[in-house]
Design a protein that fits this description.
Layout lengths: L6 E7 L32 E6 L6 H5 L2 E3 L19 E6 L2 E5 L5 E4 L5 E5 L30 E8 L3 E6 L6 H8 L17 E5 L7 E5 L14 H8 L2 E9 L5 H15 L8 E6 L8 H5 L6 E4 L8 H20 L1
Parallel strand pairs: 1-3, 2-4, 9-11, 9-12, 12-13, 13-14
Antiparallel strand pairs: 1-8, 2-7, 5-6, 5-8, 10-11
Amino acid sequence: MSRFVDEADITIRSGDGGRGAVSFRREKYVPKGGPDGGDGGDGGDVIFLAQHGIKSLYDHRIKRSYRAENGHAGARRNMKGKKGTDCIIAVPEGTVVIDRHSGRLLADLAENEKAVLLAGGRGGRGNSHFATSTNRAPKFAQEGSPGKALFVTLQIKTIADIGIVGLPNAGKSTLLATLTKARPKIGAYPFTTLSPNLGIMEFKGRAQYVVADMPGLIEGASRGVGLGIRFLKHIERTRALILLLDMSGADYVEQHDMLVGEMAKYSADLITKPRIAAGSKYDISADRKRDFLEAPFPGEKVCISSVTRFNIDILKEKTIALLERADAGSNA
């Protein structure tokens, strides 16, 4: 199966607050010094950080428990205890954190985004806080408050270098199987793909690229029709798009305009992604090649057949070049 959901269940716990100190001034010329116990330090927080370059949750399947450091105890002379060291958990971009027990979404992490999932316990107050006119030498202080614990599920929302976008039955799953070694479920009915299928595309010894076959997009998706918003959230996390247009129908320009229009209604950022228009089913639509290549929509166009592999290598080359140009532009 090419479809995968990279997922891990882990336990996280923030640090306990440090206890306050019970202490009294002991100075040469202050024989009856008052209380000077310092406050305890706060416990460390549990922080999730989405980092570029991390591709899976494999490490979190091995290490399944994370805990921040406890706060340090207060000290004499009103010295506050040191805050506990935070526990920073690095995850791939696009990771969502879900409370395992309630199912509630706790965080949805984009590139370089941080989220404090659990704050550390508060440090306890030292005895200097409790002096009163009737009790000038309190011999007690507060314990720090305990940290919090959660059992959470980490899931990677599909992050792919290339997303294949098209209408239901445009041939997306077949193209994915041709570009990669993936073997997605393929059927002659709408919404064969209910969640993204992923595959790894390799070409001429170059770096590997993750390709995702997205659920079919239909008119009204930006309003939640069909798989709607679920689909559009997935393509937000791709670097480039292949718009797969079925050349066997006469309406490939309308297909293109509908796809772009629905993406634009959802987010203007989607239509700024680098993209290639690929005319599919060339094996039964070769007579439409010229019209397709002269179609009035922007960007590169290529006619392909996943069945005969016509122009598949050219599509790979064009797609890799598109990504490389995008990377060069972002690093300029």
